[in-house]
Amino acid sequence: MTDPNQSCITICQECVVACEACVTSCLASAGGMSGCVSYCRDCIDLCTLCVAFMARGSTLSAEVCKLCAAACKVCSEECAKYAANCEHCRRCAEICARCAEECSKCAEHCEKSSCCK
């Protein structure tokens, strides 16, 4: 049997990796990218929390997924500002956008089904 949350768990894990790489690179650069770093850190924490809640089938999964989607959307928008000149920001923006979409879908699914209740 396939876990209906597996695609969301997978993209959240990919998002954590992309955001960690982005933070590391942004901190090493001398350009004022503090917004990028801050949003990536929020995204890392919320994606990690989202994975844990979904993996254990928490009744709060939908709420955490919604918050994670919001954080990923903001992070994607911030990283996209640097995407033309910065490969790690381009990749982070892309993955965060996908994660925001998947987390939104997962939140809707959790609210409508019994898998997260």
From TrEMBL:
Gene3D superfamilies from the UniProt entry: 1.20.1270.360
Pfam annotation, one family: Csp
Chain segments annotated as transmembrane: none
Domain of life: Bacteria
Entry protein name: Four-helix bundle copper-binding protein
Organism: Candidatus Methylospira mobilis
